[in-house]
Design brief:
Elements: E1 3-5, E2 12-14, E3 19-24, H1 28-31, H2 36-39, H3 51-63, E4 67-73, H4 84-87, E5 98-99, E6 102-103, E7 126-129, H5 140-146, E8 151-157, H6 159-172, E9 176-185, H7 189-204, E10 208-210, H8 212-220
Parallel strand pairs: 3-4, 3-8, 4-7, 8-9, 9-10
Antiparallel strand pairs: 1-2, 5-6
Helix pairs in contact: 3-8
Bound molecules: tricarbonodiimidic diamide.
Amino acid sequence: MNKVLEAEPFNLEFGPASTALIMVDMQRDFLEPGGFGEMLGNDVSLLRSTIEPCRRVLEAFRSAGLLVIHTREGHRPSLSDCLPTKLTRGGKSFIGSQGPLGRVLVRGEKGHDIIPELYPIAGEPIIDKPGKGAFYSTDLHLILTTKSIRTLVVCGVTTEVCVHTTVREANDRGYECVVLEDCVGSYFPEFQKYGLMMIQAQGGIFGWVSNSQKMTAALHN
Ligand code: TIU
């Protein structure tokens, strides 16, 4: 039976069985000191308020038996899947360099992995993505199609980079996307604000915005 999520710009009706939670890049490299986010000059503590709301939504999806998918941004140890434009943006090269959390944004390294608070459990697909969007050069669309998913509940970091890119990609592939405002984070408070506004503006040009409390309430009703 369909459920209703309180959201902006208007309430969203969704079928739980055709809805998936997408946890975007909740990796140490973005949320912990010593990782990629900090190397780029950011204060990673700004993202950490998302962890607890994300944990509650993750719990709610797991206990309802719904699909949960995690993504991780990163590259092969050889960096053969890291475009030169990304590797040396601005003349600086952090990706692949050795840091306190291992080689930055490299698969298999400590910093690349998902933070322990939100660690995937058995059966939850993990999408390793070389780009910002979770659909680019991954099998995410195939997995979602195979499971007849139509609605994506999107959480993760950062709001205006990988969350936005993923929502835009999803929108053009026919998915309904809802972004939970307290479950997405940015290093820039103004980008957080305007990033969320951009999603729901113009009658929901990219999708809906809601929050963790409304999402868990909708699943329990
Ligand atoms: N730098 C920044 O805000 N984000 C990223 O590089 N990747 C993600 O958003 N995951």
